[in-house]
Batch of 4 targets.
Target 1
Amino acid sequence: MSKVEVFRALHHSRLPGDPLVLPGPWDAASARVFADAGFPALATPSAGVAASLGYEDGDTPADEMFAAVARIVRAVDVPVSADVEDGYGIAPAELVERLLATGAVGCNLEDSAGGVLKEPSRHADWLAEVRDVAGGELFVNARIDTFVRGVADPGAAIERAGLYVGAGADCVYPIGAPVGVLPLLRAGILGPVNFLGRPEGDSVRELGGLGATRVTFGPGLLRCSVDALRGVVAGLG
């Protein structure tokens, strides 16, 4: 079985309370820590990688993001999915080519740019192009930005999810959705649902019981690492 086939299989036949947990490495060293801990796959967070490279979230040049993803992939033996934001304006064929060149088996692609939600039907068409070019070689996680762009109605996220799944997305990611609406999202969405967890928040078992297929943490684990480092540094003086 190829790595992308392994990654895709990890998303299916999940039992309630047993979501796929994908830690978010920001560099090769953190990737090795997560892989050595036994996690079967990883998913890079764009904000975490940006911070590791000295950029604000959303400001990382495409070349540097792809290079960072390649270093992370090279450091571990488990499948890695890459957050490549809104695709950096790169045409689908080139985007897929560059992603595959890093060794990544999947990608996050978000449906807003510059803080503005994209028109969902046009975005679905774009996702379909990415999926068609990639064939089965990339697991496409379609991020839905309604909640983080001020649209609190779960119905808006469910509507977009239907379009994206219809376009061939393997999973949808309503980032920023409140825990309380997770059962409603699960009931209205066909296919796997990615939920943004917090290290100090609800347990992954609880999130899985509410309907999360997989749980990622964005830059949350990087922030935990920085906080721990601050504690170490404070004791050096």
Note: Strands lie at 20-22, 42-43, 80-83, 106-110, 112-113, 116-117, 139-144, 171-174, 194-196, 214-216.
Target 2
Amino acid sequence: MSERADQQAPLQPMPTDWQRALAVVAHPDDLEYGCAAAVADWTDGGREVVYVLATRGEAGIDTVAPDECAPLREAEQRASAAVVGVSTVEFLGHRDGVVEYGLGLRRDIAAAIRRHRPELVITLNHRDTWGGPGGGGSWNTPDHRAVGRATLDAAGDAGNRWIFPELISERGLEPWDGVRWVAVAGTATPTHAADATPGLERSVRSLMEHKAYIEVLTDQDPEEYVRTFLTGNAEGVADRFGGRPAVAFEVFPR
């Protein structure tokens, strides 16, 4: 099958036989630019979703110094998560803009997986570009690439007691081999989707909580910018998901 034909194949519904999910991304607002509509629907259904962010987004606003920006963006992220029913938001403390793929990052994410014991792990596009596997599209950021790739690897690390044994001896975090899927958002090669309709309005409100960041991104009215972006993305998936606006994911079963 050609790449083009494969990309136009219908998207399968996201798995629903799970109770706990862990979303691991690089920055405040990463989840709100794509996943929040799905998260709102999942938490409405009684599922638990926890957010883990590698950084506090302190290098994200040119006009605000990092030591002032970090608490501002952290507060916006917590408020944003609350809109879609997420009450637990953790920050790993890696430096914004210079996150490096490596053992330290894998260890931190594996520790989070062991703490929260999710069945579903969610992350953001780990590939070099926002285009397909053959390239194309705009260049992805180093932080997104590092965190996405480390999350995929850490899902396996979390279940192996001989990888990062100090997580057991020093933190009492026993292995968790219960991750059944890793779902990657923002991918050009999705395989699954979640209906965005029930949570779309709350996803708009959730992204709007990142007011300080959005105001430096665009000269548009912030709500117009947010609504246009999120609605357009959701509707762009509809033709592959039975005509329903949706949040697309590339799902890697484990």
Note: DSSP finds nine helices and eight strands in the chain.
Target 3
Amino acid sequence: MHPILIAFATSPDRGQGLARDMRVRWALEELGIAYDVQLLTFAEMKEPAHRARHPFGQIPTYEEGDLRLFESGAIILHLAEQHPGLLPADADGRMHAIVWMFAALNTVEPPIVERSMAWVLEREQPWYAQRLVMLDERVRRRLDELSARLGDGPWLDGAFSAGDLLMVSVLLRLKSSGIVDEFPLLAAYVARATARPAYQRAFAAQLAVFQNQQRQQPPH
């Protein structure tokens, strides 16, 4: 039996590859792992059956026999440890890649998510424009530091790794803002990663889910 990725039936990003199940799809494609996908609606995500997999009722989750995992970073770390391709073979290189996984999720992503949630929840408020300036400054500070560390190298630390996969997934959340384009080294980094065949396969699969859902909706 193939492992099962539980993903959005109707992704909130409208098929743009920004939802966190996309990260796991990408890792599975990079590692050449055949997998099945189970799609859940937002209502089904909050039902007891899914909360048994994910206590917070979110997406994605991953099932491999009796093993059930949630949190995209933990799922990707498990996959990378079980299959060659996303973590270096040497111990030091492996830990460097894992450090970048944590940096992507714990250091770079939080200000990006805060910015996006402010747009969702506060954009109609009178203070939003002023708050956005502060949020953008925080994001730019992180991107400036990341760009300095990346330099002219193709990837963050040696060969492409799970650290790069997660970092690029995080940076893609800024796609509509244009902020990444202000940092040419990071823009080129994202372009290199998203040109990888594994990313293209994962994106096509995720987009196909959204398009299929659109076709199934009754006409207005």
Note: The beta strands are 4-8, 36-40, 61-64, 67-70.
Target 4
Amino acid sequence: MDKLYIVIPAYNEEENVENVVREWYPIVEKIGNGSKLVVIDDGSKDHTYELMKKLAKDLPAFEPITKPNGGHGATVLYGYHYAIKAGADYVFQTDSDGQTLPKEFWDFWKKREQYAMVIGHRKGRQDGLSRVFVTKTLKYVCRICFHVKVTDANTPFRLMKADILKEQLKLVPENFNLSNVIISVIYAKKKLPVLYLPITFRPRQGGVNSINFKKIVKIGKKAYKDFIQINKCLK
């Protein structure tokens, strides 16, 4: 009788949001037990939220939410806290750009009782060399700052036990931009049972990526300072 909350952040995703909702909705519908698909509009400037509200009229287990813009990491954290407060037993997070495949979720679900987190490992990813570079850089920074090896720290395809996640979130600063990265690090640092499974990672299915190199550098500088502070709490 497990309750699952699927958390998906969205920003200016009017080209993708309907397909993403319709692809992921059957999972919460099949699991039942009060499971919900929650898409959080991060203050989009397009019609993302309006489309979400229309979809919700025919999809009772779909909850569209909107909030002021705070960035991807802050929106992910918002979703995690929302799911935990709603009584979720498990929280799954993915993104709204259509790069992940819902059919690969079920291998993760089968492993849910054995691990605190089951997370995707993006092998043969198709989203460009710059994204691969960022992932490898993050892996290196995590090793330097925290002395842990994290296979793919920022993967937007992760299933977590809600009660364990709740405790780890106490260590994550409010509105932290690289929230999934630091959560992966905390689990590794505490030696919590984590399983990495390979996943397909397609090109963005529509729209334009809102993250550019300038933003990545800015986020990275702030994250490095935060990483040092968080590491003191983990010692």
Note: The mean pLDDT is 87.
